[in-house]
Amino acid sequence: MAPAARHQKSRARAIYVLNGPNLNLLGSREPEVYGRTTLAEIGKSVAKRAKSLGFSTVFRQTNSEAELIQWLQEAGQNAAGVILNAAGLSHTSVSLLDAARALRRPLMEVHLSNPYAREKYRHHSFVSEAATGVICGLGADGYLYAIDHLAHLLKGQTA
Ligand code: DQA
After folding, report:
1. Catalytic residue positions?
2. Does 140 fall in a domain?
3. Residue 113: which CATH number?
């Protein structure tokens, strides 16, 4: 296989796992709500699970809405599927919804907490309108279930 073709195929097996504002603080941020697992630990377990299912991961966090939108656009070119925890931006950002709609890849929305059991302003997510599925309230395990589902969906698909 030509090197270029190989490169294209391996990139298309990548699952982008994108995390929004304040998720860099996981572990110490409101542990009674979000648990004690750090984002680095989530990144490691997600990469391990994805690898066992034949996928690689691109795992990132940003506090910037613009950067998150940029990464979704990038995922549209490079990813087989996307897991997105847009954190507070889920509840506020029409621009993020627009980027998610433009993605044309399976998109799993994940929240560690269950926003529906929390303040009313967390009950609506713009991201959900473009999501293939939503997993919430299962803590860090939610990311693993999202990987499992994407792998199941993408199974048998070639780049
Ligand atoms: C969150 C839920 C959001 O409401 C909140 O703003 C977050 C984290 C979660 O993972 O539970 O920052 O997305």
Report:
1. 34, 111
2. yes
3. 3.40.50.9100
**C-alpha span between 11 and 56 (Å, rounded):** 8
Number of domains in the chain: 1
Residue pLDDT, tens place only, 134-151: 999 999 999 999 999 999
> Is the four-CA dihedral 4, 7, 9, 12 of positive or negative sign?
negative
Which protein residues are within 6 Å of ligand 1, measured from CB? 22, 85, 87-88, 90, 111-113, 115, 122
How many H-runs (helices) and E-runs (strands) does the chain carry?
6, 5
- What's the 89 CA to ligand 1 centre distance in angstroms? 9
Which atom number of ligand 1 is nearest to the Cα of residue 122?
4
Which residue would you say has higher pLDDT here, 36 or 5? 36
Q: Which residue's alpha carbon is at the smallest distance from atom 13 of ligand 1?
A: 87
| Ligand 1 atom closest to residue 23's alpha carbon, by position in its atom list | 12
In a domain, 159, yes or no: no
Residue the block writes with tokens 């110490």: 28
- Burial label for 122, CB within 10 Å (0-12, 13-18, 19+), is middle
Residue 150 belongs to a domain: yes
Give the domain extent around 102: 3-154
